[in-house]
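Protein Entry — a single chain follows
Fields — amino acid sequence, structure tokens
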Amino acid sequence: MTSLPRGVAVSFAAALGATLVMAAPVALAPGKRIFGSSQTFARQDPNRDPLIVMEQFRTGQVPGPYLQPLTDLPGRALARLLGPVAAYNVLILATFPLSAAAAYLLARYVLGSHLGAMVAGLAYAFLPFHVAHATNHPHVAQTQWLPLFFLALWRCLDRPDLRRASFLLASAGAVALSNFYAGLFVVVLSPVALVAYGVVSPRGPGEPRWRRLAFTGLTLAAAAAAGLLFIHRVAPAVLLRPGGFAFPRSDLFLHSAKWWSYLVPAVDHQLAASRVREFWAARGVEEALLEQQVGVGWSLLVLAAMPLWLWLRGDRTSLAARSAPVLASVAVAALLCSLSPERRIGSWTFVRPSALLYEVAPMFRAYARFGVVVGLMTSVLAGAGTACLWRWPTSAGRRAAALLLALAVLECANFPPWRWRDVLPTRAHRWLAMQSGSLRVLDCVPPSRVSDSLAVPLLGHEVWLLGAPTFDDCGEPRLGDKLKAMGYTHVVVRRDSTIGRWLAAHPLPEGLARGPEFEDGWILEVKAERPRVYVSALLGFHPREYGEATWRWMEQTGALRVAATRESVTLLELELKAFPRDRHVEWFLNGRRLGEVEVTAEWRRYELPLGPLTPGETTLTLACRGAAIVANDVLHNDDPRALGLAVGSWRIKDASR
């Protein structure tokens, strides 16, 4: 039989090779691309969570209760050496060969078979659960620690001593400190794994059973006590006021697994992706689709059933068959914990474990993640099934094993296998990042999109999002004048945004020219001459509306902030429209009344002489006589806004010429 070190090395190398094939584009450009297909997500922002973690790696700042040190601290160290994007990729991609090696160690101990352990290691490393969470949740993707914990637990049960107890304590700490959810799995499933293994004793009787159970149980209790002390020291509020970190109970139903989730292929599988997505959409599962990626594959299930069938027939000759009920017990317990808090059938309501766990730990909601333990136990059972078939008296066993393994590869693999996406929001952003020199860029996206704001440090230029000082809208007339005056060189527009769709069908505002165009966005170049006077901000207006032209409504009063770069005698030509009928509108300059105009209910242009302006900002206030009218009262269009006057385009003239 292959030696244990050699077997671990082979499993690690095989998984590493598969990982490099699967993520080849990321390996070739680790500072620009990140792992994962965006198809795993429905309406989620696929780069949000990765960019949050990268920013934490870059700055070294993680809110105290959320620091998961065995993942975050290596990420910080790698970020100093490689940069935050490459550090994130290393931390993600390393989990595949490490998980394969760890699962190999567990399966080799439980099964005593090199072949079975190889199958278990590779199956576990590339579970749909692991691949899906590696696209978005770097902490959840640290799956390499769970097999080591179960290995330490069962080794300690077989022959308890201080060395094995220390290994158990260290592995429990590693699981919890790498990912808090994995810590929850250990706390909940340890009693099941302890009792099941202790009762079955696959390796035969050793010391008295009660002594082995007591020693290992006390070791687990010591690990739990150490964990509580750690939480009390680092984040005492979690223990004293757990409700302050609670998710709504309704979230549990969204982020828990369905029982059929374990039988459905991955949503980004190239051979079945469209049908799988239709399947989930028909059942109203879109928002938390990633959490449902817990499928284990039909082929692995068939292989996993083999050792259970042998055990039920009374076969106790092989270690694999004797271990089958232990692995199945832990898998069933994890599956039950992964389901929603309750299920109603007729007049009966069945309460499930997650309902009880939520009462104790309301800061956890994604109980579908217990599916990783289901996947681990199924993988080890599948390895046992492969080993049993390979030792079958006739060649039919080997042929069946080879066929099932080939089908398992087909179920889990994607064709083509490359999984990657750009860390930046669009190809237009990538073009900007590749430019040398110093650019100042306006990104026409609101700051509510967290991923876009977090991507700014990765561009290497000064980039501002909407909401930056004096910029709240990219559809503003004469935007080029304002951008030039404030030192901007480029504008980024997404094709699927409101302003993107409008600009695609209309001429560009004066002072802007089209630059490089891409399928998801384009670059606008600022070509305006430096203006003598420009409108720097609109105050007291509703958001911009788009039609054949663009406009903004105000209520009874609104203001335009006019900025002069040098002395000028200025005439402002404004396009105005009153609502719902003609209105008298007074206008003031820095609070001083300069005149009044009668504005009609149709668009017309009006000239407002501002007189001589000195460098600096001046406030032009427009005030309607009479109160603004609620739009719905007149138009019956369910618009609750009070409207008085709309401002369309404008032009500034130098009256001194």
Summary: The chain has 25 helices and 20 strands. The radius of gyration is 32 Å. The chain has a mean pLDDT of 91. The longest helix spans residues 209-234.
